[in-house]
Design goal:
Blueprint: E1 2-6, H1 29-32, H2 36-39, E2 47-51, H3 52-56, H4 67-76, H5 78-81, E3 92-96, H6 112-122, E4 126-128, H7 151-173, E5 179-184, H8 189-202, E6 206-209, H9 217-230, E7 236-240, H10 248-253, E8 256-260, H11 263-270, E9 276-277, E10 282-283, E11 286-287, H12 295-302, H13 308-327, H14 332-346, H15 353-362, H16 364-367, H17 371-376, E12 382-383, H18 385-409, H19 414-417
Parallel strand pairs: 1-2, 1-8, 2-3, 3-4, 4-5, 5-6, 6-7, 7-8, 11-12
Antiparallel strand pairs: 9-10
Helix pairs in contact: 7-8, 8-9, 11-18, 13-14
Length: 419
């Protein structure tokens, strides 16, 4: 089963100094910063997923890519842009139209031709046909009349199928080199199966299932079971935005051959507690925010409510004691005291002492053999700034990849990631 990681220009700066927190003055982000597949060896995914709104933006809005980056992507092609020709042999690149970004519109904001030209112009391996999300799910509708289904849901499903037909027709007429995928949307198990059936008749042999991110696992499994009944044995399924390693065997049994998600990466700095992955557990990262980077603290300093020198002293004390603890020169209690004092100054209301104690007692970064943990050690567990947080995200991708291999084929992932 293949895992695709959605790109959002999440890179790390190899010149970043974790002690001084300075970087090279000669750094050029696109040239020097590194993607996860350049940091983690072997690459922690089978391919990248790039989205048209991220690259080109929506009508009337700016893209995440700069104009220079966008021009370079089209000029060089995606493989060279992401430097897959250097260290990412075998990695694929899939494109989609970013339906989440225009979900509130009555119809998609792009034309089929614009999306197809984005895929072909970028030199992608796979391209997902235009779709329109259905945000709603009710399995009980399978026992009712089609008239009971909200009109908007029916409209979006039918429109997605029509767009898929137009996309495939244009793909064939232009003899495009990328592999086309259609998207099946539904509101229940039978409606998903019906969409898959229609897309197969149109001529697709690879179909993505969309709109499942908000669904509970039992609903996903019920829908996949119904889809599998209608699925042609030669047709492959892709799950958009779904990562549930505990159920990959079930997914595979229902015809799923690939999926994509940012969850392992994003949890490193978006989740309240599951910031650092291990093969069998997760840990909270130690929050030591930068004095100059904390908006609330900066306002308090400006208002004269907090002494800046005291804040800087407590910040340095936290980092120093944590590094000392990593070396075996500092006690756990003194580290926790420093962290609590700094949190109190920041006005942090959530008490994470017990969670921090669990992380520090376990020292999971000491046992991990991934490239990130071997190179930066204890810095990976510090929740502070993009260069640490993204590296922790890269570590999570490496562990997630190992978990996936373990679930699918029993690979001894522990020998690769733990010592």
């Amino acid at each position: 089963m293949e895992f695709y990681f959605p790109d959002s220009q999440d890179q790390v700066d190899p010149s970043f100094d974790f002690i001084t927190e300075q970087r090279s003055i000669h750094r050029v982000r696109q040239r020097d910063d590194r993607y996860a597949h350049e940091v983690i060896d072997p690459p922690p995914y089978d391919g990248l997923l790039i989205s048209k709104p991220i690259v080109d933006g929506l009508p009337g809005t700016t893209a995440k890519y700069t104009e220079a980056q966008r021009n370079r992507l089209y000029r060089q092609g995606a493989k060279r842009f992401f430097r897959l020709d250097q260290r990412g042999e075998g990695l694929k690149i899939m494109g989609d139209c970013g339906a989440f970004t225009y979900v509130r519109e009555h119809e998609p904001v792009y034309t089929v031709e614009e999306v197809l030209e984005f895929y072909e112009g970028s030199g992608l391996d796979l391209g997902v046909a235009m779709d329109h999300l259905i945000f709603g799910y009710d399995a009980e509708l399978d026992a009712k009349s089609i008239a009971d289904v909200p009109e908007e849901w029916r409209f979006r499903q039918n429109l997605t199928i029509e767009l898929a037909a137009e996309f495939l027709q244009l793909h064939k007429a232009r003899r495009c080199r990328f592999e086309p995928l259609a998207v099946a949307h539904g509101w229940s198990p039978l409606s998903y199966a019906s969409a898959v059936t229609q897309l197969q008749r149109i001529g697709y042999d690879r179909i993505a299932l969309g709109g499942m991110v908000p669904l509970k696992t039992p609903d996903i499994l019920k829908s996949l079971k119904e889809v599998s009944v209608a699925l042609d044995p030669a047709v492959q399924l892709h799950l958009l935005g779904i990562t549930r390693t505990a159920h990959v065997h079930d997914f595979a049994g229902f015809g799923v051959t690939s999926f994509d998600s940012t969850s392992p990466f994003r949890q490193a700095f978006k989740d309240e507690k599951d910031n650092y992955y291990t093969l069998d557990s997760t840990f909270v990262a130690i929050r030591i925010p930068q004095v100059d980077g904390n908006t609330r603290l900066r306002r308090q300093v400006t208002a004269g409510l907090v002494d800046q020198r005291s804040a800087r002293r407590l910040e340095r004390d936290c980092l120093s004691r944590l590094r000392g603890y990593d070396r075996g020169d500092e006690s756990l209690e003194r580290v926790l005291d420093a962290i609590c004092s700094y949190a109190e100054l920041l006005g942090t209301t959530k008490d994470r002492t017990s969670e921090y104690r669990r992380t520090l007692e376990a020292k999971p970064w000491k046992r991990c053999r991934c490239t990130v943990c071997r190179e930066i050690g204890v810095e990976v567990i510090i929740f502070r700034g993009a260069d640490r947080n993204r590296r922790r995200g890269f570590h999570n991708l490496a562990v997630f990849s190992a978990r996936l291999r373990r679930e699918l084929d029993g690979t001894d992932a522990r020998s690769q990631l733990a010592r």
